[in-house]
Amino acid sequence: GEVLKNLNKFYKRKEIQRLGTENGLDARLFHQAFISFRKYIMESSSVSADLHIILNDICCGAGKVCLLGHVDDLFPFFLRHAKQIFPMLDCMDDLRKISDLRLPPNWYPEARAIQRKIIFHAGPTNSGKTYHAIQRFLSAKSGVYCGPLKLLAHEIFQKSNDANVPCDLVTGEERVYANEDARQASHIACTIEMCSTNTPYEVAVIDEIQMIRDPARGWAWTRALLGLCAEEIHVCGEAAAIDLVTELMYTTGEEVEVRNYKRLTPLTVLDYALESLDNLRPGDCIVCFSKNDIYSVSRQIEARGLECAVIYGSLPPGTKLEQAKKFNDPDDPCKILVATDAIGMGLNLCIKRIIFNSIVKPTINEKGEKEIDSITTSQALQIAGRAGRYGSSFKQGEVTTMHRDDLQQLKEILSEPVRPVKAAGLHPTAEQIEMFAYHLPDATLSNLIDIFVSLSQVDGLYFVCNIDDFKFLADMIQHIPLNLRSRYVFCTAPLNRKEPFVCTTLLKFARQFSRNEPLTFDWLCRHTKWPLAPPKNIKELVHLEAVHDVFDLYLWLSYRFMDMFPDAVLVRDIQKKLDDIIQIGVCNITKLIRASQSGAASGAAEVMSEDFPLSRTKRDTRVISGHRGAKSTEPLSVALEVPGEGRAKSLKAYRSAIRQEDLKSHGRGSLANRLLREGLLTQEMLKQLESEWQDQHRNGRYGLASKRDNQSSSKETGKKKK
Predict the structure, then answer these.
(1) Residue 170 CB-density burial (10 A; 0-12 exposed, 13-18 middle, 19+ buried)
(2) For residue 123, which of 236, 461, 650, 713 sits 20 to 30 Å off, Cα-Cα?
(3) What domain of life does the native source organism fall in (predicted)?
(4) Which of 540, 586, 543 is nearest to 337 (CA)?
(5) More reliable by pLDDT, 708 or 699
(6) What distance in Å separates the CA atoms of residue 604 and residue 465, rounded to the nearest whole number?
(7) What residues does 92 pair with on adjacent strands?
(8) pTM for this model (two decimals)
(9) d(CA 472, CA 694)
(10) Is the pLDDT score of 60 beyond 90?
(11) Which of 547, 573, 596 is the last residue of a domain?
(12) Backbone dihedral region of 208: left (phi > 0), alpha (psi from -120 to 50 degrees) or beta?
């Protein structure tokens, strides 16, 4: 008891905490080290002689005028123990130097060796800012365009070659050479992560510079802005980023010339909401912030005898372009577009009026947490600005909301000034992580990243980007034997961790790679069950999109490990065929929705039979509260036996509640249909529910009868029947 009291006294002393900080133990590490140290002393059968003597002196001398020992004397032993559980403490100075991110401009000596001219083209959507930068790009002897999307890079690649300026296309998954002999052209259009900071250019264009604040990808814009070796850097984006870019360039000794642009066509916020899909007009675009709303709205539009094009983020680029082409074609009967905010950049669309189906959107904050909040002014302006594109058949744009209650809030959002961009993103490089691993050879990659971020130092102009996706992949493949550089590459693969099929495929790729077995075209076809048929329902369409992402993943890895992923050409061929199959599905999306609904209805009719009218309520509550995308489900329905008159009253009340629920859903079909459409239920889950309910119902009924007849049954048997 005396030892424990003195240990706790040691922990609380400010001098000890200060010494811990000086030796690399922040508050979190200090606490963890102390808990371990206390456990070691209290639970060990014996401790070292010198520590035993110190503890004895402290305890025996407590309360005496002449102290034999003081709790501070424990610190050397505490620090020695802390270094055993945190090996990094022995090399803390080296690790701090490696993770010092306060001077990113110094990472790019080639760029610092030349005097660059920075020109900021600032303006809203549809102001011609990017057009002027591209004109300078085309007139230069050499140049690089860096965009946020494959679609944008492909557009500049096409424009450049159409203007007789040979230009290569470089994305994470693709290399297309302008010259037939695969000789590199003087101009390159690339996604921003793929730009080279070693190649000299006359002109570089960095598009959508405001994305330098993006919690996940901001580091790529920071790298391009600080590291591109170009005589002229043309930066395009929102005026909200001017101050940050100016400050960043001040640290490199470079001045920024700002050119402001105004919108080329007027944009009007209407005083009335759409309120009903009956009020749609040619050139309308309804913007939704979830795929489920896309399905629902497009189904309702085509129920009114209108054709609509559909664009959302997870569609392949080719399908997006085909849908945009269909909507833009004046001779095509399709005059309505239903889209997510994926239309905010990368597609040229002839839109007359933007209609926000909702003004709340799920987002990921800087901590990697999911939040649902109103769209920002920047997002609203980016999307609304797509209406009335300069050069289209519509000379002015309009914007409104679907619901009257949202209109006033949208006006307030659009009238607010865009928040200034405050900081630029950074991300640890493979070289920095390798240096960490040299000092901490036994640490996992996920732990190395954690330690790096905890020790990293940044000044006010920068922040460390969110690394949750990286850590997720690092933990997923940790058990697979890979060298650190290969492991790092696999963890930076661009995939959506919410897609189980894609994540499982990455795991199989890594396992095969670790065995030094090439991932061949035949292997990939077996894994994806290629060839695939056109989708018959929404679930199959979603799976085809995931397979397309798997092909993207293969191509991405093939440019980093050519020997192990040797069949990129064959995979690209079948990916194009898959793109065509997905296009068929999207063109028939309402048929797929109807097929899904009819399948759900038949399954629901069996499950929701008259035998268990009250079980539906409990099942629905459990399904709705569960998260989307679950691949399996526990028994959700509970059969409630209500005898006689009480059963009739409960049935009546239940049906009334269901009618109220259906009224609240604005007539969007039965509950089972809606759950299936929203991705919360599948046909398999409905069948499983029916089977489980029947088992429960049978066991419950016969179990009760058995209990009445056999009161003397064993306790265990009774439990089982219950």
Answers:
(1) buried
(2) 461
(3) Eukaryota
(4) 586
(5) 699
(6) 45
(7) none
(8) 0.76
(9) 39
(10) no
(11) 596
(12) left
Q: Which of 60, 632, 630 is nearest to 52 (CA)?
A: 60
Q: Please give the average per-residue pLDDT across 568-572, as a whole number.
A: 96
Task: Write the CATH number for 246.
Answer: 3.40.50.300
Q: Which residues of 11-50 are buried (b: 16+ CB within 10 A; e: fewer)?
A: beeeebbebbeebbbeeebbeebbebbbebbeeeeeeeee
pLDDT tens for each residue of 539-566: 999 999 999 999 999 999 999 999 999 9
12: number of CA atoms within 13 Å, CB side? 6
Q: Which of 89, 119, 150 is at the close of a domain?
A: 89
Residue 656: inside a domain: no
* Cβ atoms within 10 Å, residue 161: 18
Q: Is residue 64 pLDDT above 80, yes or no?
A: no
**Block residue for tokens 């293969």:** 554
Unique residue bearing structure tokens 């996706």: 469
Rounded Cα gap, residues 613 and 196, in angstroms: 65
H-run or E-run covering 321: helix 317-328
- The answer to whether 652 touches 660, Cβ cutoff 8 Å, is no
Pick 686 or 572 by higher pLDDT.
572
Two structure tokens written together for 635: 């028994």
pLDDT at 482: 95
Backbone angles phi, psi at 424, to 5 degrees: -110, 145
**Do 335 and 376 contact (CB within 8 A), yes or no?**
no
Candidates 365, 363, 362, 314; CA nearest to 339 is 314
CA pair distance 263, 295, nearest whole angstrom: 33
Q: What is the pLDDT of residues 398-422, one digit of tens each?
A: 999 999 999 999 999 999 999 999 9
Mean pLDDT value across the chain: 83
| Residue 267, pLDDT above cutoff 90 | yes
Same domain, 471 and 571: yes
- 199 occurs within a structural domain: yes
Give yes or no for a contact between 116 and 122, defined as CB atoms under 8 angstroms apart. Answer: no
pLDDT tens for 291-314 read 889 999 999 998 899 999 999 988
Length of the chain: 722
Considering the chain, what percentage of its residues have pLDDT values greater than 70?
Answer: 82
Q: How far is CA 679 from CA 592, 626, 663, 691, in A?
A: 13, 11, 21, 21
Phi-psi region of 70 (alpha: psi -120 to 50; beta: other; left: phi over 0): beta
Q: 370: helix, coil or strand? A: strand
Burial class (CB in 10 A: 0-12, 13-18, 19+), 660: exposed
User: How far is CA 414 from each of CA 342, 348, 361, 373, 711, rounded to the nearest angstrom?
Assistant: 19, 22, 16, 15, 73
Range of the domain at 514: 430-596
Distances (CA, A) of 120 to 141, 256, 264, 443: 21, 7, 18, 43
Phi and psi based region of residue 253 (left: phi greater than 0; alpha: psi -120 to 50; beta: remaining): left
């759950």: which residue's tokens?
675
CA-CA-CA-CA torsion sign (537, 538, 540, 541): positive
Phi, psi (rounded to 5 degrees) for 254: -115, 140
Number of domains in the chain: 4
Asked if pLDDT for residue 252 goes beyond 50, the answer is: yes
Instruction: Give, rounded to a whole angstrom, the gap between the first and last alpha carbons of the chain.
Output: 50
10 and 71 in a common domain: yes
List pLDDT tens digits, range 141-165. 999 999 999 999 999 999 999 999 9
